[in-house]
Amino acid sequence: MGSFTVNGGVRLNGSVRIKGAKNAILPILAASILTDGEVVIHDCPHITDVDNMLDILLAIGCRIKRSGDTVIIDASGADSYVMPPSISKKLRSSIFMLGAVVGRFKKACFTYPGGCEIGNRPIDLHLSGLSRLNVKVTEEYGLISCEGEDIRGANIHLDYPSVGATENIMMAAVTAKGDSVIYNAAREPEIEDLQCFLNAMGYDVRGAGTTTIYIRGGGRPGAVEHRLIPDRIVAGTLLCMGAMTGGTMTIENVCMPHIMSLTSKLREIGCTVEAQNDTVRLKAPERISEIRLLETMPYPGFPTDMQAQVCAMCCVADGTSILVENVFENRYKHIPELVRMGAEITIRDRTAIIRGVPKLSPAELYAKDLRGGAALVAAALKAEGKSRVHGVELIDRGYERLEDTLNALGADVARDDG
Ligand code: UD1
Known about the structure:
single chain; alpha+beta; 25% strand; binds uridine-diphosphate-N-acetylglucosamine
């Protein structure tokens, strides 16, 4: 296991540019098998979730070229509907292939997906959505088999606005006979980006970004060139790190509406946040004040993917903060680590009560999941002295060489590949 050695106690100052969003590119890579035309994706981050997804595409017969931040996919030779179990176990996003694979091959064979250990992550909504499209789903011995010889459009109401289920249904429904409507769809910006990609490819999807998505079945998909939306969670993570270290930073390539739930909280706790076009500038006070109440919710609510980083930030706020995690039931694994650094946190069910302390102490820290790992790096940046954050592989899933980004902002972070 690799680690980061963080020499904490410096303010983050400077300017960085954010790349495309992990949660946008993963379903878009899946959707790239829905055409035989050339797919060109720009601003692709170099993160391991993307590497693994590209490995899946290779394994099912796609040809891939990568040049800098551009990925080119040719799926014309794709010939396998079986997801390689070794990869899909590692990567929960392999489940995002399901709709596209059934759409293309009329069949799919999957193992139950892996991914972050943030609680029980069922896929019932994905499977029942596909069943509504007339796909026959059977589950046996951890294997999911789908038969979709006659995929038909349908009206689908999701019991919960699941991001992945919404995306999978969109990808299968574009290949259906007849039209579909998804009600109570997830509204995340990454779903709009998928819609944009599918439409550029020649399909007809409308309504993404609202709770009702209309999908016309069929279409003549061709070549597509697409630039990803910026990663709102990477931007948010850096803003939290800037806020808690008393920094001044400029982040380029952000979409302000996508990070508004965070920037409004940052203002509330004493930061100055200024936006101009796609650039945001943060100036943090000497010590931030508390967040009185923050609850994670589906978009446009506060993202669960920012909860851990905000939790780390609140550890050094002047006052007591209350966070409620509503989306995932086991997403507080970073808290025992923060407590070992001197943070004062109590967990009651889904609520974390954080009494801010003036200082954190450096420690040996163990990342348990992707965003929790980033939260530990944030805390280590604040703690004066040398901390070590183990489990960098988890952080690499969603942050491209985080140490380089932080060092460009004046931090002192070194990677040890272990
Ligand atoms: C996506 C994001 C992830 C983010 C999450 C919530 C990607 C690659 N990942 O994950 O970073 O944390 O959205 O914003 O885009 N659920 C069910 N049944 C299902 C599906 C989901 O009960 O069939 C539940 C989950 O257990 C969870 C909630 O719905 O409690 C949200 O999950 P979902 O929106 O599906 O998240 P993902 O698509 O997995």
